[in-house]
Amino acid sequence: KKYAKKFSKDRKCETWELTRLRRKAIKSYWNEISLELNENPRKFFSTFMPFISSKGQKETNEIHLNIEGRIEQDQRIVAEEFADYFSTVADAIGGEEATNLTEEKCINHRSIEMIRARYEPDSFSFIEIKREEVLKALKELNPRKATGHDEIPSKVLKLVAEEIATPLTDIFNQVIKYCEWPQEWKMGEWIPAYKKDDHHDKANYRPVTILSILDKIFEQLLCQQLSQRFENIFDPFISAYRKNYSCEIALVRLVEDWKQAMDEGQTISILSTDMSKAFDSLHPTLLLAKLKAYGFTQNALDLMKSYFKERMNRTKMRQNDLFYVERESRLSAYADDHQFYYAHKEPERAVDTITRDGKQTF
């Protein structure tokens, strides 16, 4: 760009040649990128996202918030501010009706009455999980997934899948039997994810909850049972989070309906809605009442009630605290791989320094 601007002011042969070389280099770069994307299409998003959006660009750096008119840089204070905000952001959604919705009031809630009017339920209980299911889930773990508060990485669980599949199956089935979700699995870490507009406004961040890998495996296996249960209950026009009901399917259905209406000379009116903080405003008491209306047994309801009860979260800023440890050696970090290194003419000094810094850090 520097030479392009220079050429616009000073149209000499030298500056034109530099501009030509710059354009050639850009063209060559994108040709190489296009070849790489043909071989690995998964890189498309990471390649083009920086050019079309600023989302996520602040997530690896410190976040500074405007708190009571002052830009706060202390990450501990920022984390506490996010924790207070994320934990109360959905309190006002739904107004007094949602706030005062008790278990007794849910019994005759209009949504429950509609379920009863349209659906004759048969009973549903969670069944025992088989070792083969647990082993399959362990082997299919993505080693790049974030680690929860227990700091047990998916990479380790995947390596010892054969050894832990049986005891883990026993634990899962004990949870189903006694209808009590382990408290350690209800502890999450909120990572603030930037959405848009002012980076200093906490309202422009959403919480990404990182849970224990073991909890996510158990949730996944129970979700499979729930999906089978509700597959024939869900309306065919409900898409997302269902197999063979993707965004593309929903769009094709809409477009085809509209095309047919236009061919018949009809006028199409559209009302588009987007529920604000839909997942944040989930009402556990009402949801449990709906599950009961769909035929969930008391044991199944007790397990789901335990899942929602006494959940705990803490805010974790996107930063590596290893860099805050004072040491002589240098640190290079790539994801979960860390290299400490120290150079010195005396080998003994180099070894002693690395050993000391390693003990001090870990």
TrEMBL record:
Q: Looking at the record's lineage, which domain of life comes first?
A: Eukaryota
**InterPro entries in the record:** DNA/RNA_pol_sf, RT_dom
Specify the protein name. Reverse transcriptase domain-containing protein
Which PANTHER family does the entry link to? ENDO_EXONUCLEASE_PHOSPHATASE DOMAIN-CONTAINING PROTEIN, REVERSE TRANSCRIPTASE DOMAIN-CONTAINING PROTEIN
Reverse transcriptase domain residues? 196-315
Which species is listed as the source? Paramuricea clavata
